């Protein structure tokens, strides 16, 4: 069994874009149909979108090399 660090950037970008599209469709659909259920689910997808963006940047930071101050590197991000 191999241990892989991080996820490819393409997968993150795809997930972020799909989540943003779903958010916008649900938000506009909820506004047009006066559906509080769709609007609240779109806000939930917005929080998922923010979490994916934070994860994307954390995934980028863990690839940074170690230096004099961070001898272990940035893997604990």
Topology diagram in text:
Elements: H1 9-33, H2 36-61
Helix pairs in contact: 1-2
Keyword list:
elongated, mainly alpha, single chain, 2 helices, 77 residues
What does this protein look like?
The protein is mostly helical and 77 residues long. It has a domain at 9-61. Helices cover 66% and strands 0% of the residues. Helix 1 (9-33) packs antiparallel against helix 2. The protein is elongated, with a radius of gyration of 17 Å.
Structural class of the secondary elements? mainly alpha
Sum up the overall morphology in one term: elongated
Helix content: 55-70%
The H-and-E topology, N to C, reads as HH
Mean pLDDT score, rounded? Answer: 85
- Major sheet details: none
The tally of strands reads: 0
Output the radius of gyration: 17 Å
> How large is the share of residues in beta strands?
under 5%
**Which stretches are poorly predicted, pLDDT < 50 over at least 5 residues?**
none
Number of helices: 2
The end-to-end distance, rounded to whole angstroms, is 24 Å
Summarize the model shown.
With 77 residues, this protein is an all-alpha fold.
